[in-house]
Amino acid sequence: MRRSDEWAGAATAAAAGIAALAVLGLALPRVPLVSMIGQLLPLLGLALLPLALGLAALRRRRRAAGVALLALGILGLTGWRFADVSAEATAAPDAGVPFTLISFNALYSNREGVSAIPALLASGADAILILEAQQFQAELPRLAQAYPYRLGCTPPEPCDTLLLSRRPPVQARQTWLGAVPAKRFAQFAFDLDGWRVTLVGAHLTKPYFDELPAIERLVLANRLRAIDGPLILVGDFNATQWSPDLRWLAKRADMRFSGFYVPTWPAAAGGFGLPIDHVLTRGATVLSLEPLPSAFGSNHRGLVARLRIP
Question: Are residues 264 and 279 in the same domain?
Fold first, then answer.
């Protein structure tokens, strides 16, 4: 057997394996562990492209064309799913009130998370959501100088979900999402130049092992549906927006994702990671969405969202 035949066979086998994974992820999106494959769809599609090029270089043109079409199909499906629940791209509105928001999963085991405080304070953000915020407990007096209003991290409750605001609340509550006994739902309504705006921070359970996340999504969606006026949902959802679960959540709650693709996890992967931290809105426009300048030791990159309300 010629060496080119061996390389062509290896590339074909690799492409077939990737295709089988993609089909499995699409066919069984809610089976524990298998659902993780669906989160990787665009990466699987991208992985097929060099294999198609390799087969073309080896003059296996039909195989190359088939693999390329499969890659484009996977990427096209992911793109459609992404756009289907994203806000339409529009020019920045002239009217409305600007609002800046930061979301950051600091990671419980991270000893460097509080090093983010100077960047958070210098950001000028109107509100900050910090998840897995235990290490920030001792820094609350320092944060209170710029953010005198907070929800969460009040003894004897554990410091898990922390929401900081420059504006006082007109209504606030923090509770659990119905599955995991941790208060990972924070609802904070405030007045923004005459607009009653509701900011909701949420941290959903990883959707890979059991049915608990489905309970959380249902509870969260129903709570969001009951909120009137401009609404912002932000947090760590442990899933991509092209997953069936988050597409269902957005549609059930009548909300839209920002439309910006910002990979947040794992932080070490940079632009090759997955976007599992999100900002969704109803009655507000996300003008930009960018990562924080550093992960500050966390395995998540934080998000800086600039919005206009309404």
Answer: yes
